[in-house]
Amino acid sequence: MEKLVEAFALHAASQNDAVRQGDAKTANKHAKKVNETFDKLCAHGNAGRDALAALFLHPRMDVRVKAAAFLLRHRTDESKAVLNEAAQGQDLVAFAASEALKRWAEGTWALDPGYG
Q1: In angstroms, rounded to a whole number, what is the distance separating the alpha carbons of residues 57 and 79?
Q2: Helix (H) or strand (E) holding 42
Q3: Contact in structure between 97 and 86 (CB atoms under 8 Å)
Q4: Quick one: pLDDT at residue 21?
Q5: Is the pLDDT assigned to residue 113 strictly greater than 90?
Q6: Residue 98 burial (CB < 10 Å; 0-12/13-18/19+)?
Q7: Residue range 60-75: average pLDDT?
Q8: In 3D, which of 35, 3, 56 has the Cα closest to residue 113?
Q9: What pTM value is reported for the model?
């Protein structure tokens, strides 16, 4: 599972780098890989989700936010703490964090529909 977590982090970072560079095609390719990797982790059940939580300590805030957004249902308090911290900023990562929190509060968040 460690390799899957590393792949998630790599693709999350690459997706955000591509967005910053205005390269939507590359960003979408990495977004697809993020989702595929998350699905592979979820195939391991809660152990896979727990493994992804290691990214809450990743050096890049955008990677922490991506992991937290995907883990809101499984690790609600920890995820919200990561997202609230990130949402204090003024950049795209802050916006993504605040949007994830907003969707969660509205009850429309659905990144892990197979949970439970």
Answers
A1: 11
A2: helix 24-42
A3: yes
A4: 96
A5: no
A6: middle
A7: 96
A8: 35
A9: 0.93
Q: Which amino acid is at 22?
A: G
Residue 49: HSE in the Cβ half-sphere, 13 Å Cα cutoff: 20
Whole-number Å distance between alpha carbons of 32 and 80: 24
Q: At what angle are helices 2-20 and 61-70 packed, to 10 degrees?
A: 120
Any idea which residue has 């590359």 for tokens?
26
Q: Which long-range contacts (CB under 8 A, 24 or more apart) does 9-13 make?
A: 9/55, 9/58, 9/60, 9/63, 9/67, 11/37, 12/62, 12/63, 12/66, 12/67, 13/60, 13/62, 13/63
d(CA 53, CA 50): 5
**Three-class DSSP category at 20:** helix
